[in-house]
Amino acid sequence: MRNWKNLIQRPLVILGIVFSLSILNCIAVVSAAEPDFSKVPKSPKPKKLTVVLYEPVEQKAAIEVSKLFEQKFGIKVEVNAIPWINLHEKIIADLTARTGTYDVIFIPGLWALEFIEADFIEPLNKYWNNPNLPKFDIEGYPQSVVNLLSKNGNIYWIPHHGTTQILFYRKDLLQAEGLRPPETYDELFKIAAKFTNNPKYPGVWGFGTTAKQGEFASSTWSTWLWSWGGDYFDENWNPIFNDATGVASLEAYAEAVNKFAPPDAPNWANEEAGAAFQQGRLAMLQMWPYLGAAMEDPTQSKVVGKVGYAPLPKKVLRFPRLGSWGGTVSKFSRYKEWAYLWVAFYNSEENTDNILVPSGVAVCRLSTAEKLKDKILWQDAVNKSFEHTKERPGIPEITPIIDVWGLAVSKVVTGQSDAKSALNEAATKIRKILDDAGYYSK
Amino acid sequence: MTKRNFTLNSIGKWTVFYIGLICAVFFFVFPIFWIVTTSLKHRVDVYTEKPVLLFSVTWQNYQRIFELHDFGRYLLNSFIVATSVTLIIMYFGALAAYALTRWRIQGYNWVSLAIISARMFPPIALLPSFFLFASRIGIVDTRRVLIFAHATYGLPFIVFMLAGFFRQIPRDLDDAALIDGCSYFQLFNWIMLPSVAPGLAATAILSFIWSWNEFLFALVLTRASSKTLPVVISEFIGFVQVDWQGLTAMATILLLPSIIITFATQKYLVRGLTAGAVKG
Amino acid sequence: MGKSTGCDVFLPTVPGALSNGNDVKQIMPTIRWPRFLSKRQQVIKRSIRSERLIPYWMLAPLLVGLAILVYFPMIGTFVLSFLRYFWNKPQQPIRWIGLNNYIDVFSDSLFWQALGNTLVFMLVSTGLSVLIGLGLAVMFDRKFPGKSVFMTLILLPMMIAPVAAALSWKFLFDGQWGAVNYFVNLMGIPNQAWLASPKLALPAIMVADIWLYAPFVFLVMFASLQALPQEPIEAARIDGGSCWQIFTRITLPLLVPNFLLIIVIRLMDTFRVFDFIYIMTNGGPGGKTETVGFLSYERTFRHFNMGQGSVIAIFILVVVLLISWYFIRILQKGLLEQVR
């Protein structure tokens, strides 16, 4: 080839080479993002792995993936689904007793520091940085969600599930009145007022949300608090949710529930609120997106095809609450590397796309979320909501604190107390909890 | 044995009587009726404003239950636990009741107080410590631990019920048997137990139904392999939705044995509670 | 002979009536052995000594079981109430903090609210279920067509799993789909949001509790009525007493000990009520259905605060023991009067 120097000077050839190189590069990047499952741990194979999670949705996906896992690696996987209300206590009971019953544990972002500080779970970056194990690319997940369980440079989970609350609304009703979904809370109030007690729409209420005492009330009020620009604590853990902004947000929340929601909304958990919307009783609903599947299911929903999904409105900001679940490896598992393998396998792109999504898991894996934007009706709203979203602080003391918030919100919503005194009382109680736990004596 | 402490002499009084009775029956029966009918409904029909009597019946909820992963095992667990508990309570309860009524026991007061007060302790207070203990010795999630917990917790009530029965049996019977050369073991098993048969029957019914339906101990002490049906019911409460049709179907299945047993042995139940026994 | 011990009253008896050896005094056999025993009697006497141990063996399984399940955990709980112990924070050392937990619990306004709710619940629920049970028992104390069918129907709530019952009542009380609203509508009352209303939530739970336990009260009272000895009543009737006189002077006093017993049991159980709150309202709205039993569970199993949860559990235990001790006293007095 005497003429090869001439050859490479031809622009087309150069272009061709560059092109092929870049394609190769892309392929390389894509396959680097996918874990290489040909690498298996060298430690002894377990007879079976045990996974614990909550609720049918996750269970379906986990069972499906486990079947594939068994085919591929020859290990049986037992999936334990525990009802959500009992999940926390059951898992803690087993971890405290160090029984090692569970190898893989699905936890929500809310329990982050509780589990990390109690040394219940393994840092996963230890495993994916291990050259003998499949590497998992955590970059494919939104930072805000991954960071919930990061501490001191260690990442403790792979969050397969991350989503924010969004607004469900009745497309047909709003269109009939010539309205768009609300961009601000003021608009929300106007639209809700229009549909409540309107003789043209009998039996319809303007707005609904879950206001049941405890976790539910606290969960939905969080969105309002943050959207008003307030927050729960400052950097020194002083409660600031009882300042003017906080009080205003709670008053608005209570007003919305009292004026625009059916009278039994103060006892609503997800099931009742969802059912109300499903049966056509609500014009708008603040709810988790995964209820969307139930809305579009003709065997149970009366509003199939009439539902629109929008991000929640903003006051100062748009700041819906983040809900997240992820897989972790128990510190007392006897087969930690294999447990990690299961978690990585569960979250592989292929499984995420083909199994998790159809089962109804609200995936937050960026690539999948992009792909689903057009296929799932509410994905767009969720993607937009990720701009500003966070979860309440995942400290170990969060559960009693949530109950204090939940009690305060419930009192205000049912008119037993005004917002200011309820929040002040809550602040005093929470201050005591944090004080006892040593947050103020650093 | 019905007596007439009050006689109703007029049609008017009988009418009032029956109206009151029917109201009471309606109040007690309606929720059960709701449970059974909901188990036969499609999900759409569950959320209706008026209780409807006509709806399209579907058996798919029951089908779903039977196809439930491991349903057979849970059913077996419930059954094994309930029958074992019943047998244990019957035998050891009678044993303890016999002991209490036939001998002067040192510290009799304390023993009685101890047994009664066991019934009073809130289970919630016991569970954390007991759970930790059970997990340390590795018997959590076995049927044994649940049988133990149920039997122990249910015994005090039964002991006092059967004590009344034993007291009614004249001591001459004991003495006659002993003099004839029976050992205590034989005396108890072959003579005493059959004598309190009605009491044992009532015991069996109450214990079985209680253990079959028990939830709190089962929730805390079982995991996947020894789970019982009441715990499975609670799992129909999802985070996002409650599977009412599935739940009520399971509740109906759970209800059937209890109904059958009670209906078949109603007479014994009353007689059992009557004959000098549980006046409480 | 045979000192009448306070605990005897818990051993069921047919109070004071003609009986076949049910008398309280006859529980303990007294054995006097004259010196001139026959051979047979000597044999018996020898075996009496080892016989002494037999009742203890018979009671052993029960007592050992109770020790493991109840007594030791109870002591454990008592000790725990003095510790700062969060079982979701094993990294935090368990410390003895004396009465601090007690102070924290008793200075929490939620605790007092819960206590108030519990007392109301206890009194109303027990009262109504006793009234209903008594009324039904009296009604059933006669022959009438369909009696056994009606009886089985009324006993149905006893057979259902309490979990399922609580869930059903939750749905029945739903503001939008609940059948309860349907029926009150028929009576002209508008739809209520039962479980979300500060005023109606606790009454709604009381209804569910009464529904579940009144049949048991009925059963026990009915059995007592059946066991009433006839002779005194017949005698009184012959002597010309009116129905009302017979009822109040003869029937009631004979029934009182047993009734008191079932009342005590119901009082204790309602004081500890937990399942319904857990499933139906979670303590809301605004703490209106918080009860001490639920609070104890919440503190121990949700907040993982072993110390405070144990304090409340001990508190429940003390109250329950006091109630029953009080009633034991009453029963004991009543029984002594009877025997006289």
Question: Which features characterize this protein?
Answer:
heterotrimer, A: 442 residues, 5-stranded mixed β-sheet, 4-stranded mixed β-sheet, C: two-stranded antiparallel ribbon, 13 helices, disordered N terminus
Describe the 3D structure.
The complex is a heterotrimer of chains A (442), B (280) and C (340). Chain A has a 5-stranded mixed sheet. In chain A, strands 8-9-7-10 form a 4-stranded mixed sheet. Chain A contains 19 helices and 11 strands. Chain A is an alpha/beta fold. Chain B is an all-alpha fold and 280 residues long. Chain B is 74% helix and 0% strand. The model of chain B is unreliable at 1-5 and 276-280 (pLDDT under 50). Chain C is mostly helical. Helix content of chain C is 66%, strand content 1%. In chain C, helix 4 packs parallel to helix 8 (201-226), helix 8 crosses helix 10 and helix 12 runs antiparallel to helix 13. Mean pLDDT of chain C is 79; it is low at 1-33. At the B-C interface, helix 1, helix 4, helix 5, helix 6 and helix 7 of B face helix 1, helix 2, helix 4, helix 5 and helix 6 of C.
- The percent range for helix content of chain C is 55-70%
Instruction: Point out poorly predicted stretches of chain C.
Output: 1-33
What sort of overall outline of chain A do the alpha carbons produce when their principal axes are compared?
Answer: globular
Cα-based radius of gyration of chain A, to the nearest Å: 24 Å
**Terminal Cα separation of chain C, in Å?**
15 Å
The low-pLDDT segments of chain A are 18-32
Strand content of chain C: under 5%
In oligomeric terms, what are we looking at?
Answer: heterotrimer
Tell me about the largest β-sheet of chain C: 2 strands, antiparallel
What is the approximate shape of chain C?
Answer: globular
SSE pattern of chain A:
HHEHEHEHHHEEEEHHEHHHEHEEHHHHHH
Q: Indicate the structural class of chain A.
A: alpha/beta
Overall SS class of chain C: mainly alpha
Largest interface, Cβ cutoff 8 Å: B-C, 111 and 120 residues
Major sheet of chain A, described briefly? Answer: 5 strands, mixed
Kindly state the percentage of residues in helix of chain A.
Answer: 40-55%
Mean pLDDT of chain C: 79
